[in-house]
Amino acid sequence: MIDLYYWPTPNGCKITILLHELELPYNLVPLNIGAGDQFKPDYAKISPNGRMPAIVDHAPHGGGDPIAIFESGAIMLYLAEKHDRFLPEEVRARYDVVQWLMWQMAGLGPMCGQAHHFRQYVNSPVPYAADRYTKEVNRLYGVLDTRLADREYVAGEYSIADMACWPWIKPYKLQGQDLEEFPHLKRWFLMLSKMPKVREGWNVGREWLNGGPVVTEDSKAVLFGQTAMRG
Questions:
Q1: Where exactly are the structural domains of the chain?
Q2: In percent, how much of the chain has pLDDT > 70?
Q3: pLDDT score of 231 more than 70
Q4: What is the CATH T-level fold of the domain 91-193, as seen in this structure?
Q5: pLDDT tens string 109-119
Q6: Nearest-CA neighbor of 193 among 155, 166, 222?
Q7: What is the third-level CATH fold of 2-85?
């Protein structure tokens, strides 16, 4: 059994989508990031960075003691390798998936997150920052649109690269983007949106939000006010 420490954000949904695609049972452990659950000492033993998602696999790949893994990209690689699905064996195809997974981790996710922050969460608008990150997200959408111009999925066949990117495109309107500008990206996005396991993964924990946003005025100090913890 896998314990999944989770809150319904794009990074969290990357893992639930993969778990549902793999049809794996898992124990869902709610981690209310707005209340600061991710900063509790016990959770730091699982995720030293104080972020979610994270997993504990009680029957790890290769046997032995339970293994804890944090960082969504690392979790996806681990699960795909363990179950030999959604990550090709052939070296070129494999690293095609890996490089696009890393692209999402290093570019698409962080830049979309900054666009969300400066477009929605700041109490005093910072026009330069909002414009800067909105344009960078637009550029990254363009990269993905070009990539999808001659292929059905991001890395040829359906893979963890698609599962990693899709949840960050889902809130495109909040990022100031119009999918009509990106026809190949739009085709791919709508195709994945109709896939049953993608929809199941996205919907996990939605009821915890009570129809409201992930970030509220009360949660901002917790989410955006952390500094280094010492001694």
A1: 2-85, 91-193
A2: 96
A3: no
A4: Glutathione S-transferase Yfyf (Class Pi); Chain A, domain 2 (1.20.1050)
A5: 999 999 999 99
A6: 166
A7: Glutaredoxin (3.40.30)
